[in-house]
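queue> holo job accepted (phenylalanine)
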Amino acid sequence: MGSRSASMHGMWSSRAVFIMATVGSAVGLGNIWKFPYITGEYGGGAFVVVYLICIALIGVPIMMAEILLGRRGRASPIATMKRLTREQHSSPLWTLVGYSGVLAGFLILSFYSVIAGWALAYVFDSAAGGLNGITADGAGQKFGDLVGSWQTLLLWHTVFTLMTIVVVARGVKNGLERAVTVLMPALFIMLLIMVGYAFIEGDFARGFGFLFNTDFSKVFQLCTGTPEALNCEFTGEPVVVAMGHAFFTLSLGMGAIMAYGAYVPDHASITGATLTIALADTVVALLAGLAIFPIVFASGLEPSSGPGLIFQTLPIAFGNMPGGQWFGTLFFVLLVFAAWSSSISIIEPAVAWLVDSRGWTRGVAAFAVGGLAWLIGIGSVLSFNLWSGEEYQLFGKTIFDLKDFLASNIMLPLGGLLIALFVGFGAGRQMALEELSISRQRLFDAWWFVIRFVSPVGIVIVFLNSIKAFG
Ligand code: PHE
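queue> job finished
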């Protein structure tokens, strides 16, 4: 067996703690904020189906690969890749995965903390009764006022970045770990209640149909405008976005899961853990969709209204249900925690690398990485106000959109591709066999085939298809 020492960064106390932490990383704004709004933008059911296929055929096998690499290397993703390329006598170029992951982490945190900041702002607004009795127009206005003020966004962006830094500085295991164990189940129950509300008060049939009725002609089209005057263009963009989101929502392709995998106990089953994590993540996203779209349709809102979608719809529910003031506050608190347990994993690869390869202390490393992400994040803050105009856009996208597009839809899938190829071809079959220790040979063979051929080919086809469509 390979290196069997403990990681210098500490170890999870059990397999269950690892699963909790990784669910904490996976479940976040991606599920509750991003999934509904991109599903709305890219037309609903068909997009959801492509996303689910990507989770099953690309996400799950690559998550197993990331965890096994992490556990084998027991270090930061960059150091792990260095170690394993040496151990497996393969090219040091594979280490690029580690570096690109660190870069993607900066990009992701730099917009993630801005959106988490919106959630923080809504915690206080809701607690102060600001959502009571709110109408659809009022909710739209409130959201517009929030993102229109760069000072307010900067404040909450700063607060959330500091929250992330503090936890990462203390080490992933202390503090947040314990909180997440209670808060994630609470978020889940809260979402169920929201779905119940949407069922009674919203246009549930239409919301449900939007999420699950599949019109595949839409998958390759990007439609804008109102339902009456729809303007559709042929493009591979929805498929690229669906695949990118599968990576984003499972925290894959950038080393976050590899970093967490480094702290996994030796004999824990990787397959079982991965299935649990992927299932929990998917269920939370679908529940969020079921909670939001019925309200969207009942309130006459547009599903394609963009990143503000949940902030314009959920307040209508909270504002008009009994006890909504506290209910809403609690919901946004839980959303902040979900984002928090994800954001720490976004910078963990960079911080762990500065600690194990550069000899920095954890505290200094966390501040440096968080500080730099904060600085880049100012561009995301301004994208919604001072720099929202066309003169500040590239390819019709603001800085915020560009960072998300580049990181989620290009860097994460490319990182995932390299991870799959390294495990499948760069390293030996023996390494995977030892780490996964799947007792049923058939199951291992199936995964081995998928990780070597199905996932990589899938990623490449999606990319080629989009190039063809764009060209
Ligand atoms: N998976 C997280 C979410 O869905 C985001 C994330 C991306 C976390 C990449 C870590 C790495 O919110």
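queue> The domain at 15-470 is CATH 1.10.4160 (Hydantoin permease).
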